[in-house]
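Exam review. A common question shows you a sequence with its C-alpha coordinates and asks you to describe the fold in words. Practice with the pair below. Do the first one on your own.
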Amino acid sequence: MKRTAEEAAATRARVVEAAILVFAGMGWKEATYEAIGARAGVTRGAVHHHFRDKTRLLEEAISAGWRRHAAPALSELSCMDRPPVQRLAGFLSLYLCLLSQDESFRALAVVSVLVAPQAVDVGEGMREKTRETDEWAALIIPLFESGAGVRAGLRPPDVLFAVMAFLRGVTATAATAPQDLPTPEASASIARAVVAGLMQDEEEW
Protein backbone atom coordinates (compact mmCIF):
# COMPACT_ATOMS: atom_id res chain seq x y z
CA MET A 1 0.00 0.00 0.00
CA LYS A 2 1.31 3.42 -0.94
CA ARG A 3 1.99 5.69 2.01
CA THR A 4 0.02 8.87 2.35
CA ALA A 5 1.72 12.26 2.32
CA GLU A 6 0.91 12.59 6.03
CA GLU A 7 2.58 9.27 6.85
CA ALA A 8 5.65 10.21 4.82
CA ALA A 9 5.87 13.57 6.59
CA ALA A 10 5.53 11.89 9.99
CA THR A 11 8.31 9.43 9.15
CA ARG A 12 10.56 12.24 7.96
CA ALA A 13 9.92 14.17 11.18
CA ARG A 14 10.81 11.10 13.30
CA VAL A 15 14.01 10.63 11.33
CA VAL A 16 14.98 14.29 11.80
CA GLU A 17 14.34 14.19 15.55
CA ALA A 18 16.19 10.90 15.94
CA ALA A 19 19.12 12.24 13.93
CA ILE A 20 19.84 14.99 16.47
CA LEU A 21 20.07 12.43 19.28
CA VAL A 22 22.23 10.03 17.27
CA PHE A 23 24.59 12.71 15.98
CA ALA A 24 24.94 14.05 19.52
CA GLY A 25 25.68 10.60 20.94
CA MET A 26 27.90 9.18 18.20
CA GLY A 27 29.43 12.17 16.45
CA TRP A 28 29.52 13.02 12.76
CA LYS A 29 31.62 10.15 11.42
CA GLU A 30 30.20 7.36 13.57
CA ALA A 31 26.50 8.23 13.15
CA THR A 32 24.98 5.84 10.62
CA TYR A 33 21.69 5.54 8.80
CA GLU A 34 21.18 2.24 10.60
CA ALA A 35 21.53 3.88 14.02
CA ILE A 36 19.29 6.80 13.06
CA GLY A 37 16.67 4.45 11.65
CA ALA A 38 16.74 2.29 14.78
CA ARG A 39 16.26 5.38 16.96
CA ALA A 40 13.38 6.57 14.74
CA GLY A 41 11.78 3.12 14.55
CA VAL A 42 12.23 2.83 10.78
CA THR A 43 14.56 0.97 8.44
CA ARG A 44 17.83 2.22 7.06
CA GLY A 45 16.13 2.32 3.68
CA ALA A 46 13.46 4.66 5.00
CA VAL A 47 16.11 7.07 6.26
CA HIS A 48 17.91 6.92 2.92
CA HIS A 49 14.64 7.47 1.07
CA HIS A 50 14.17 10.83 2.78
CA PHE A 51 17.83 11.81 3.00
CA ARG A 52 20.29 10.49 0.43
CA ASP A 53 23.00 12.76 1.84
CA LYS A 54 24.02 12.60 5.51
CA THR A 55 25.09 16.23 5.44
CA ARG A 56 21.62 17.31 4.35
CA LEU A 57 20.10 15.22 7.15
CA LEU A 58 22.32 16.94 9.71
CA GLU A 59 21.46 20.31 8.21
CA GLU A 60 17.71 19.74 8.42
CA ALA A 61 17.99 18.29 11.93
CA ILE A 62 19.76 21.41 13.19
CA SER A 63 17.39 23.74 11.36
CA ALA A 64 14.23 21.98 12.59
CA GLY A 65 15.59 21.70 16.11
CA TRP A 66 16.26 25.41 16.49
CA ARG A 67 12.87 26.32 15.01
CA ARG A 68 11.09 23.99 17.42
CA HIS A 69 12.95 24.98 20.57
CA ALA A 70 12.96 28.71 19.92
CA ALA A 71 9.19 29.10 20.41
CA PRO A 72 9.03 28.64 24.23
CA ALA A 73 11.91 31.03 24.79
CA LEU A 74 10.34 33.62 22.50
CA SER A 75 7.09 33.39 24.42
CA GLU A 76 8.92 34.47 27.59
CA LEU A 77 10.34 37.55 25.89
CA SER A 78 7.00 38.41 24.30
CA CYS A 79 4.96 38.35 27.52
CA MET A 80 3.84 41.98 27.48
CA ASP A 81 2.08 41.92 30.86
CA ARG A 82 5.40 41.64 32.77
CA PRO A 83 8.19 44.20 33.30
CA PRO A 84 11.28 43.88 31.06
CA VAL A 85 13.51 42.56 33.85
CA GLN A 86 11.07 39.74 34.58
CA ARG A 87 10.73 38.84 30.92
CA LEU A 88 14.49 38.67 30.43
CA ALA A 89 15.01 36.65 33.62
CA GLY A 90 12.22 34.27 32.60
CA PHE A 91 13.81 33.81 29.20
CA LEU A 92 17.26 33.02 30.63
CA SER A 93 15.82 30.71 33.27
CA LEU A 94 13.78 28.78 30.71
CA TYR A 95 16.78 28.44 28.41
CA LEU A 96 18.85 26.98 31.24
CA CYS A 97 16.05 24.61 32.24
CA LEU A 98 15.64 23.39 28.66
CA LEU A 99 19.35 22.65 28.41
CA SER A 100 19.38 20.69 31.66
CA GLN A 101 16.01 18.92 31.38
CA ASP A 102 15.21 18.50 27.67
CA GLU A 103 17.30 15.71 26.12
CA SER A 104 16.52 16.85 22.59
CA PHE A 105 17.52 20.48 23.23
CA ARG A 106 20.72 19.44 24.98
CA ALA A 107 21.51 17.18 22.02
CA LEU A 108 20.86 20.11 19.71
CA ALA A 109 23.45 22.11 21.66
CA VAL A 110 25.99 19.28 21.30
CA VAL A 111 25.34 18.99 17.57
CA SER A 112 25.49 22.75 16.97
CA VAL A 113 28.68 23.27 18.96
CA LEU A 114 30.66 20.06 18.38
CA VAL A 115 29.25 18.03 15.48
CA ALA A 116 28.30 20.62 12.86
CA PRO A 117 31.88 21.93 12.49
CA GLN A 118 32.97 18.41 11.49
CA ALA A 119 30.59 18.29 8.54
CA VAL A 120 31.61 19.73 5.20
CA ASP A 121 28.65 22.06 4.78
CA VAL A 122 25.64 22.48 7.04
CA GLY A 123 25.23 26.13 6.20
CA GLU A 124 21.45 26.29 6.10
CA GLY A 125 21.05 24.52 9.42
CA MET A 126 23.42 26.91 11.16
CA ARG A 127 21.83 29.87 9.38
CA GLU A 128 18.52 28.79 10.92
CA LYS A 129 20.17 28.85 14.34
CA THR A 130 21.43 32.36 13.59
CA ARG A 131 17.97 33.46 12.45
CA GLU A 132 16.41 32.22 15.68
CA THR A 133 19.02 33.86 17.90
CA ASP A 134 18.69 37.06 15.87
CA GLU A 135 14.98 36.97 16.64
CA TRP A 136 15.77 36.66 20.34
CA ALA A 137 18.06 39.67 20.05
CA ALA A 138 15.36 41.63 18.23
CA LEU A 139 13.01 41.03 21.16
CA ILE A 140 15.63 41.81 23.82
CA ILE A 141 16.79 45.12 22.37
CA PRO A 142 13.41 46.92 22.69
CA LEU A 143 13.23 45.96 26.36
CA PHE A 144 16.05 48.35 27.12
CA GLU A 145 16.48 50.57 24.08
CA SER A 146 15.47 53.67 26.05
CA GLY A 147 18.32 53.01 28.45
CA ALA A 148 15.94 53.29 31.41
CA GLY A 149 16.84 50.90 34.19
CA VAL A 150 20.20 49.92 32.70
CA ARG A 151 23.02 50.07 35.25
CA ALA A 152 25.31 53.08 35.09
CA GLY A 153 28.09 52.69 32.56
CA LEU A 154 26.11 50.27 30.39
CA ARG A 155 24.23 50.92 27.17
CA PRO A 156 21.44 48.74 25.74
CA PRO A 157 23.91 47.15 23.27
CA ASP A 158 26.08 46.20 26.25
CA VAL A 159 23.12 44.47 27.88
CA LEU A 160 22.45 42.55 24.67
CA PHE A 161 26.12 41.55 24.40
CA ALA A 162 26.12 40.22 27.97
CA VAL A 163 22.90 38.27 27.46
CA MET A 164 24.03 36.69 24.18
CA ALA A 165 27.44 35.85 25.65
CA PHE A 166 25.67 34.14 28.55
CA LEU A 167 23.51 32.12 26.14
CA ARG A 168 26.50 31.04 24.07
CA GLY A 169 28.39 30.11 27.22
CA VAL A 170 25.67 27.92 28.70
CA THR A 171 25.07 26.30 25.30
CA ALA A 172 28.76 25.41 25.08
CA THR A 173 28.60 24.09 28.65
CA ALA A 174 25.66 21.86 27.73
CA ALA A 175 27.70 20.50 24.84
CA THR A 176 30.99 19.96 26.66
CA ALA A 177 30.23 19.62 30.39
CA PRO A 178 26.49 18.92 30.86
CA GLN A 179 27.11 17.72 34.41
CA ASP A 180 27.87 21.34 35.31
CA LEU A 181 24.44 22.61 34.30
CA PRO A 182 22.38 23.91 37.24
CA THR A 183 19.22 22.32 38.56
CA PRO A 184 15.90 23.84 37.46
CA GLU A 185 15.54 25.32 40.95
CA ALA A 186 18.89 27.09 40.68
CA SER A 187 18.30 28.21 37.10
CA ALA A 188 15.76 30.85 38.13
CA SER A 189 18.11 32.29 40.76
CA ILE A 190 21.02 32.35 38.33
CA ALA A 191 18.90 34.12 35.72
CA ARG A 192 17.79 36.72 38.24
CA ALA A 193 21.38 37.31 39.34
CA VAL A 194 22.51 37.82 35.74
CA VAL A 195 19.73 40.30 35.03
CA ALA A 196 20.24 42.09 38.36
CA GLY A 197 23.85 42.70 37.36
CA LEU A 198 22.68 44.49 34.23
CA MET A 199 19.57 46.30 35.44
CA GLN A 200 18.86 48.55 38.39
CA ASP A 201 15.06 48.44 38.46
CA GLU A 202 15.00 45.83 41.21
CA GLU A 203 11.61 47.01 42.43
CA GLU A 204 10.15 45.43 39.30
CA TRP A 205 10.97 41.96 40.63
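Now try the second one, then compare your answer with the model answer below.
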Amino acid sequence: MNVHIADDHEVLLRGYQSVFEGEDINITGYSNNGIELLDWLKNNACDVLLLDIEMSPIDGFEALKLFKQEHIKVKVIIVSSFGQEMFVAKAIELGVKGYVLKEEAGDVIVKALKEVFAGGVFYSKKVQELILSQNLDVDYDKIIEEKVTPRELQVLELLHKEFSSSEIEEELKMSGSSLRTFLQRLRNKFMVPTNVGLAKRSYLYLKNKI
Protein backbone atom coordinates (compact mmCIF):
# COMPACT_ATOMS: atom_id res chain seq x y z
CA MET A 1 0.00 0.00 0.00
CA ASN A 2 1.40 3.41 -1.00
CA VAL A 3 0.48 6.23 1.35
CA HIS A 4 1.11 9.96 1.04
CA ILE A 5 1.00 12.18 4.13
CA ALA A 6 -0.08 15.81 4.16
CA ASP A 7 0.72 17.42 7.51
CA ASP A 8 2.86 20.35 8.58
CA HIS A 9 4.14 18.81 11.84
CA GLU A 10 7.51 17.14 11.29
CA VAL A 11 7.37 15.30 14.63
CA LEU A 12 4.15 13.61 13.56
CA LEU A 13 5.65 12.65 10.22
CA ARG A 14 8.51 10.84 11.97
CA GLY A 15 5.91 9.15 14.16
CA TYR A 16 4.19 7.70 11.11
CA GLN A 17 7.44 6.07 10.02
CA SER A 18 7.70 4.32 13.37
CA VAL A 19 4.04 3.23 13.39
CA PHE A 20 4.25 1.76 9.88
CA GLU A 21 7.35 -0.34 10.56
CA GLY A 22 6.54 -4.01 10.02
CA GLU A 23 3.34 -3.15 8.14
CA ASP A 24 2.88 -3.40 4.38
CA ILE A 25 2.69 0.39 4.17
CA ASN A 26 5.03 2.44 2.03
CA ILE A 27 5.22 6.22 2.55
CA THR A 28 5.48 7.72 -0.92
CA GLY A 29 6.18 11.22 0.31
CA TYR A 30 5.14 14.16 2.46
CA SER A 31 3.45 17.48 1.80
CA ASN A 32 3.61 20.31 4.32
CA ASN A 33 0.61 22.20 2.97
CA GLY A 34 -2.22 22.03 0.47
CA ILE A 35 -0.27 23.65 -2.36
CA GLU A 36 2.56 21.10 -2.11
CA LEU A 37 -0.03 18.34 -1.93
CA LEU A 38 -1.85 19.43 -5.08
CA ASP A 39 1.43 19.76 -6.98
CA TRP A 40 2.46 16.29 -5.89
CA LEU A 41 -0.86 14.67 -6.81
CA LYS A 42 -0.84 16.21 -10.28
CA ASN A 43 2.28 14.21 -11.12
CA ASN A 44 2.12 11.25 -8.73
CA ALA A 45 -0.34 8.80 -7.25
CA CYS A 46 -0.93 7.00 -3.97
CA ASP A 47 -3.41 4.42 -2.71
CA VAL A 48 -4.47 6.40 0.36
CA LEU A 49 -3.86 9.97 1.49
CA LEU A 50 -3.55 10.86 5.19
CA LEU A 51 -4.68 14.47 5.36
CA ASP A 52 -4.50 17.01 8.16
CA ILE A 53 -7.11 19.78 8.25
CA GLU A 54 -5.04 22.60 9.76
CA MET A 55 -2.47 23.59 7.14
CA SER A 56 -1.50 26.90 5.55
CA PRO A 57 -1.95 28.52 3.07
CA ILE A 58 -4.43 25.90 1.84
CA ASP A 59 -6.04 23.75 4.54
CA GLY A 60 -7.23 20.18 4.19
CA PHE A 61 -10.82 21.10 3.37
CA GLU A 62 -9.78 23.57 0.68
CA ALA A 63 -7.52 20.89 -0.77
CA LEU A 64 -10.45 18.45 -0.93
CA LYS A 65 -12.52 21.01 -2.83
CA LEU A 66 -9.67 21.56 -5.28
CA PHE A 67 -9.36 17.81 -5.84
CA LYS A 68 -12.79 17.87 -7.47
CA GLN A 69 -11.94 20.88 -9.62
CA GLU A 70 -8.69 19.27 -10.76
CA HIS A 71 -10.34 15.84 -11.19
CA ILE A 72 -7.94 14.29 -8.70
CA LYS A 73 -9.24 10.98 -7.36
CA VAL A 74 -7.69 9.61 -4.18
CA LYS A 75 -8.96 7.85 -1.07
CA VAL A 76 -8.64 10.26 1.85
CA ILE A 77 -8.44 9.70 5.59
CA ILE A 78 -8.57 12.81 7.75
CA VAL A 79 -6.16 12.64 10.71
CA SER A 80 -6.85 15.72 12.80
CA SER A 81 -6.81 17.14 16.29
CA PHE A 82 -10.22 18.64 15.53
CA GLY A 83 -12.96 16.38 16.83
CA GLN A 84 -15.83 18.83 16.82
CA GLU A 85 -19.11 18.21 15.04
CA MET A 86 -18.60 20.87 12.36
CA PHE A 87 -15.29 19.38 11.20
CA VAL A 88 -16.52 15.79 11.06
CA ALA A 89 -19.71 16.83 9.24
CA LYS A 90 -17.68 18.84 6.70
CA ALA A 91 -15.32 15.92 6.09
CA ILE A 92 -18.24 13.58 5.44
CA GLU A 93 -19.82 16.13 3.11
CA LEU A 94 -16.55 16.31 1.12
CA GLY A 95 -16.46 12.55 0.70
CA VAL A 96 -13.56 11.43 2.87
CA LYS A 97 -13.27 7.69 3.46
CA GLY A 98 -12.12 7.92 7.05
CA TYR A 99 -11.61 10.18 10.04
CA VAL A 100 -9.22 9.54 12.93
CA LEU A 101 -8.22 11.86 15.78
CA LYS A 102 -4.51 12.52 16.30
CA GLU A 103 -4.85 11.67 19.98
CA GLU A 104 -5.76 8.09 19.12
CA ALA A 105 -3.21 5.31 18.99
CA GLY A 106 -1.12 4.60 15.91
CA ASP A 107 -2.68 1.17 15.49
CA VAL A 108 -6.01 2.92 14.83
CA ILE A 109 -4.45 4.73 11.87
CA VAL A 110 -3.01 1.46 10.56
CA LYS A 111 -6.44 -0.15 10.85
CA ALA A 112 -8.01 2.82 9.05
CA LEU A 113 -5.50 2.59 6.21
CA LYS A 114 -6.09 -1.12 5.70
CA GLU A 115 -9.87 -0.73 5.74
CA VAL A 116 -9.93 2.19 3.31
CA PHE A 117 -7.32 0.59 1.03
CA ALA A 118 -9.57 -2.49 0.84
CA GLY A 119 -12.46 -0.34 -0.35
CA GLY A 120 -14.15 0.28 2.98
CA VAL A 121 -14.79 3.29 5.19
CA PHE A 122 -13.30 3.86 8.62
CA TYR A 123 -14.38 6.27 11.35
CA SER A 124 -12.65 5.76 14.68
CA LYS A 125 -14.65 4.94 17.80
CA LYS A 126 -14.38 8.49 19.13
CA VAL A 127 -15.53 9.94 15.82
CA GLN A 128 -18.40 7.42 15.64
CA GLU A 129 -19.51 8.49 19.12
CA LEU A 130 -19.54 12.13 17.99
CA ILE A 131 -21.53 11.35 14.84
CA LEU A 132 -24.09 9.33 16.77
CA SER A 133 -24.37 11.69 19.75
CA GLN A 134 -24.88 14.71 17.49
CA ASN A 135 -27.23 12.85 15.10
CA LEU A 136 -25.24 13.93 12.06
CA ASP A 137 -27.15 13.25 8.87
CA VAL A 138 -25.09 10.39 7.44
CA ASP A 139 -25.64 6.82 6.36
CA TYR A 140 -24.87 5.00 9.61
CA ASP A 141 -23.94 1.86 7.67
CA LYS A 142 -20.85 3.78 6.58
CA ILE A 143 -19.64 4.60 10.08
CA ILE A 144 -20.84 1.74 12.30
CA GLU A 145 -18.02 -0.78 12.54
CA GLU A 146 -20.33 -3.75 13.14
CA LYS A 147 -23.09 -3.75 10.55
CA VAL A 148 -26.74 -4.09 11.49
CA THR A 149 -28.12 -7.46 10.39
CA PRO A 150 -31.52 -7.83 8.65
CA ARG A 151 -33.02 -9.34 11.83
CA GLU A 152 -31.63 -6.54 13.98
CA LEU A 153 -33.08 -4.06 11.50
CA GLN A 154 -36.55 -5.57 12.06
CA VAL A 155 -36.14 -5.10 15.81
CA LEU A 156 -34.91 -1.55 15.32
CA GLU A 157 -37.85 -0.64 13.10
CA LEU A 158 -40.40 -1.90 15.63
CA LEU A 159 -38.58 -0.23 18.50
CA HIS A 160 -38.63 3.02 16.58
CA LYS A 161 -42.40 2.60 16.07
CA GLU A 162 -42.67 2.46 19.89
CA PHE A 163 -43.60 -1.21 20.05
CA SER A 164 -43.23 -2.61 23.55
CA SER A 165 -40.92 -5.56 24.20
CA SER A 166 -43.86 -7.97 24.37
CA GLU A 167 -45.27 -6.58 21.11
CA ILE A 168 -41.90 -7.01 19.37
CA GLU A 169 -41.67 -10.60 20.64
CA GLU A 170 -45.13 -11.36 19.32
CA GLU A 171 -44.60 -9.60 15.97
CA LEU A 172 -41.27 -11.33 15.26
CA LYS A 173 -42.13 -14.64 16.95
CA MET A 174 -39.12 -14.15 19.22
CA SER A 175 -38.47 -15.21 22.80
CA GLY A 176 -37.79 -12.66 25.51
CA SER A 177 -34.18 -13.78 25.92
CA SER A 178 -33.54 -13.52 22.19
CA LEU A 179 -34.98 -10.01 22.08
CA ARG A 180 -32.81 -8.93 25.01
CA THR A 181 -29.77 -10.24 23.15
CA PHE A 182 -30.69 -8.34 19.98
CA LEU A 183 -31.31 -5.13 21.92
CA GLN A 184 -27.99 -5.43 23.74
CA ARG A 185 -26.13 -5.88 20.46
CA LEU A 186 -27.92 -2.87 18.95
CA ARG A 187 -27.16 -0.70 21.98
CA ASN A 188 -23.49 -1.63 21.65
CA LYS A 189 -23.45 -0.82 17.93
CA PHE A 190 -25.16 2.53 18.39
CA MET A 191 -23.26 3.28 21.61
CA VAL A 192 -26.23 4.02 23.84
CA PRO A 193 -27.01 2.59 27.30
CA THR A 194 -30.82 2.38 27.04
CA ASN A 195 -33.52 1.27 24.62
CA VAL A 196 -35.02 4.76 24.74
CA GLY A 197 -31.73 6.18 23.53
CA LEU A 198 -31.56 3.47 20.88
CA ALA A 199 -35.03 4.36 19.58
CA LYS A 200 -34.06 8.03 19.31
CA ARG A 201 -30.74 7.35 17.66
CA SER A 202 -32.24 4.95 15.16
CA TYR A 203 -34.08 7.72 13.29
CA LEU A 204 -31.26 8.73 10.93
CA TYR A 205 -30.22 5.13 10.39
CA LEU A 206 -33.74 4.05 9.43
CA LYS A 207 -34.17 7.11 7.23
CA ASN A 208 -31.54 5.61 4.94
CA LYS A 209 -33.16 2.17 5.04
CA ILE A 210 -36.90 2.64 4.72
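Model answer, second protein: The longest helix spans residues 176-190. The two ends are 37 Å apart (CA to CA). Full marks require stating both points clearly.
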